[in-house]
Amino acid sequence: YWLVTYSHSRAAFLSYLVSSAGVSTVPVVTVVPSSIPPLVSEIEGALKFSPSGDKLAVAYKGADRVMVYHFDKQTGIVSTTNPLLQLNIMQPVGVSFSVDENYLYYATALYARLFQFDYNYYDATGIQKQVMLDSLFSGEYGDLQLAPDGKLYAAISVSTYLASVEKPSLAYPDCNYLRNDLYL
What we know:
The protein is built from no helices and 17 strands. The chain has strands at residues 2-7, 12-19, 22-23, 28-31, 47-49, 55-60, 65-71, 78-79, 85-88, 92-97, 103-108, 113-118, 130-135, 141-146, 152-156, 161-165, 177-183. The strands form four sheets. Strands 5, 6, 7, 8 and 9 form a five-stranded antiparallel sheet that branches. The chain is globular and about 45 Å long. The mean pLDDT is 87.
């Protein structure tokens, strides 16, 4: 297993190997080229691996960007020279893949929106298909988490419920978004 974090001061991803012997104290360092965002004073957002572990999605709130990188599970290197995906999104905070990795979900702090991005319609020319699943009147979306029950859960700041996407591997509306699914 790998534990990956982003170090703003080093402009690099730090990958720590986790094994039965414990967590490595020496990270694999992947320096982010200056041509690749984010290069802002404060970085806030989430990092999520795809279920297969070969992609790393990052929501950079301060840089208004969602990026998806290749990840080498053998070496711990994040390939930043040619990102798989770069979306210009206002204040993304949460990000997660569907189980089959055909969809990327992301949530925004600004305007509190939740989106489903369809990889099947994305290509190098930038053609995109995404659907807004929800927009909150009050509160903010927080992190997104794919759970063992197959659902994708979303935190909402002022709610006593977790929102969910019951079938995140299906296109909207069949994915079945529920704003008040799990009572906290």
